[in-house]
């Protein structure tokens, strides 16, 4: 979370605030931002999964032995 984004010599300065020093409203704002980031990343992941699926179909690959654990 950042403070009021003060400016220094015409440039934006980001001031970090420790979670311990935030009030409830600020913490809820952080949670909302993180939730939005998670939703966006889930959407990107779904798009990549769809692309991989389409490429597998196009290339005639029926199954991969990917377990998701780096094997």
Coarse shape: elongated
Assembly type: single chain
Tally of strands: 2
Uncertain segments are none
Widest sheet, order of strands: 1-2
Structural class: mainly alpha
Radius of gyration: 21 Å
Whole-number total of structural domains: 1
* Distance, first to last CA: 37 Å
Strand content: 5-15%
Mean pLDDT, all residues: 84
Helical fraction equals 40-55%
Number of helices: 1
**Helix-strand pattern:** EEH
Biggest sheet architecture: 2 strands, antiparallel
3D structure, described in words:
With 71 residues, the protein is mainly alpha-helical. The protein has one helix spanning 24-59; strands at 7-8, 11-12. The protein has a two-stranded antiparallel ribbon with strand order 1-2. The protein starts with 6 loop residues before the first strand and ends in a 12-residue tail after the last helix. The relative contact order is 0.08. It is built from one helix and two strands, in the order E-E-H. It has one domain (7-59).
